[in-house]
Design brief:
Elements (H helix, E strand, L loop, with lengths): L1 E7 L2 E7 L2 E2 L4 E3 L2 E3 L11 H4 L14 H9 L5 H40 L3 H21 L11 H21 L5 H8 L7 H23 L6 H19 L6 H4 L2 H47 L3
Antiparallel strand pairs: 1-2, 3-4, 4-5
Helix pairs in contact: 3-4, 3-5, 4-5, 5-6, 5-7, 7-8, 7-10, 8-10
Length: 302
């Protein structure tokens, strides 16, 4: 017969507990257990093993348990209140970052649309707005809570990187390095490698659309389309050489490969048109020669 206390909630009651050790295990409350009942472990390991003495049952519970028993609750409500307040504040801040990041992304897209129409003045205005708002978001929120960078804010920064890179391609026919893009963006904080790569891979989509528009001019556009192909090929080869691609960047590989194949197809079609154009140019000359030969034959009375 082992006498001990079994905890029920916060109250401790002294009860008589009969534990009989048999070959099959411990016989407790009509059941055979492989180990002593866990419910009496509140008295310590000695009671759980069935070796507790009656004197241990008379010891008072710890002071922390007494305090919680007097307050009537096992939960620190003040601490929970502080945790809830911090969580609510973080949620509000996160909502603000997401909302303001949409404005950054929208301005970046407007810059791209302006660049498609060769309106560099409007594009520069939108890019300046992007840099101003992104810097404000960083200083007010993200710099002190870096977990807020992932998601909407990172997506907006990729849009900015795409617009800045597209402007450089149209103006200078070159791909910007990470350092060059950082400087041209006007951002006061550093772009991450995934953000830079994401912007370049998005750029290839715009360059692909540019190649299609240029191809509508016919054979004269071969040079412009080849520059577009070189841009997309450069990004594709560079990304392929990387050992690891972040998840968001890796998902864009399919679209990048598709853009590359489309531009190659456009160049092939332009080559066919060019070949057909050369043959068409020679056809009138051959027809004129046949007419001249027929007239000569008529004059000779043949």
């Amino acid at each position: 017969m082992t006498r001990g206390r079994i905890g029920t909630g916060l109250a401790f009651t002294t009860v008589e507990v009969l534990i009989t050790e048999t070959r099959a295990g411990f016989l407790f409350d009509g059941r055979v257990l492989s180990e002593p009942p866990v419910s009496i472990t509140i008295l310590g390991a000695s009671l759980a093993s069935g070796t507790a003495r009656t004197a241990e049952a008379s010891e008072d519970p710890p002071s922390e348990v007494k305090e919680l028993a007097e307050t009537g609750t096992a939960v620190d409500l003040a601490l929970l209140g502080e945790m809830k307040e911090r969580y609510d504040k973080f949620t509000d801040t996160r909502d603000q970052v997401i909302k303001r990041s949409r404005d950054v992304g929208k301005a970046a897209k407007n810059a791209v649309y302006a660049l498609q129409r060769a309106d560099f003045k409007k594009a520069d205005g939108n890019l300046a707005l992007c840099a101003k708002e992104a810097n404000s978001i960083w200083q007010e929120h993200v710099s002190t809570a870096l977990t807020l960078r992932s998601g909407g804010f990172t997506g907006a920064l990729e849009e900015v990187a795409e617009a800045v890179a597209y402007r450089a391609f149209l103006k200078e026919q070159k791909l910007l390095t990470r350092a060059e893009l950082q400087k041209a963006s006007g951002l006061s904080f550093e772009l991450t490698i995934p953000e830079y790569l994401g912007g370049l891979m998005d750029l290839t989509g715009e360059v692909g659309r540019l190649a299609i528009r240029k191809a509508s001019a016919g054979r004269e556009a071969v040079g412009d389309v080849e520059k577009c192909l070189a841009c997309v090929e450069g990004v594709f080869q560079g990304v392929q050489d990387l050992v690891y691609l972040p998840g968001g960047v890796g998902k864009k590989m399919g679209a990048l490969r598709s853009t590359l194949l489309k531009i190659e197809g456009v160049l092939y079609e332009l080559a066919l048109l060019s070949h057909a154009g050369i043959r068409a140019a020679k056809a009138p000359e051959q027809a004129q020669q046949r007419d001249d030969t027929a007239e000569a034959d008529d004059s000779a009375g043949l």
